């Protein structure tokens, strides 16, 4: 079975006005997304941030839980976390580990509005069984259009009602469940 990887990105993101910006790390994202990644057998959870001080904060959060002896299951989850400066590093690591470049899938609440290639949940479930796959998650008000356009395809937007403003932690959990929740 091919490896599934996820990356939480902080640049290039959109702000409220739609301008490209760098977002700050949210401390809850590190352990919460790591636990979700471990639950769904994600091979590696990358936190990608261009600002060194933000990467140091992420590393301290990861290291705190990895060193915590009282919570071995939390440690197991946090051992999946890798902190990188840019996506190129992530692509290179995955390609080296898997022997081929990963398929890159983007996530956005605006998927239905964008002209980029899209996959259904069923197509995406088949794809992640066959090829190494990297799923990108954005912060702030989502990934820039240029970043989304560079993805091989977009996953469907998470929809449950007219209100569509989930935290990234919730979106990661829902999307991973839709991709892998029915696996034996």
Structure notes:
This protein is α/β, with parallel strands linked by helices and about 180 residues long. The chain has a single domain, classed as SPOUT methyltransferase, trefoil knot domain (Alpha/beta knot, 3-Layer(aba) Sandwich). Helix content is about 40%, strand content about 15%. It is built from seven helices and eight strands. The protein has helices at about 30-40, 50-65, 70-80, 85-100, 120-130, 145-150, 170-180, and strands spanning about 5-10, 15, 20, 45-50, 80-85, 105, 135, 155. The strands form two sheets. A six-stranded parallel beta sheet has the order 5-4-1-7-6-8, with helices on both faces. Strand 6, helix 5 and strand 7 form a beta-alpha-beta unit. Helix 2 (about 50-65) runs antiparallel to helix 3 (about 70-80). About 35% of the residues are buried. The mean pLDDT is about 95.
């Amino acid at each position: 079975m091919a490896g599934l990887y996820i990356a939480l990105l902080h640049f290039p993101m959109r702000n409220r006005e739609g301008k490209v910006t760098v977002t700050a790390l949210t401390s809850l994202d590190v352990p919460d997304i790591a636990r979700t990644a471990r639950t769904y057998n994600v091979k590696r959870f990358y936190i990608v941030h261009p600002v060194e001080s933000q990467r140091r904060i992420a590393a301290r959060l990861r290291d705190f839980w990895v060193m915590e002896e009282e919570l071995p299951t939390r440690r197991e989850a946090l051992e999946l976390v890798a902190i990188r400066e840019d996506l190129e590093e992530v692509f290179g690591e995955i390609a080296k580990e898997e022997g081929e470049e990963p398929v890159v899938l983007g996530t956005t609440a605006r998927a239905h509005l964008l002209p980029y290639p899209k996959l259904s949940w069923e197509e995406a479930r088949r794809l992640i069984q066959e090829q190494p796959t990297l799923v990108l998650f954005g912060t702030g008000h989502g990934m820039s259009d240029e970043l989304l356009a560079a993805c091989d395809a977009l996953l469907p937007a998470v929809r449950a009602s007219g209100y569509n403003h989930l935290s990234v932690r919730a979106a990661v959990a829902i999307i991973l469940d839709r991709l892998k929740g029915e696996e034996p």
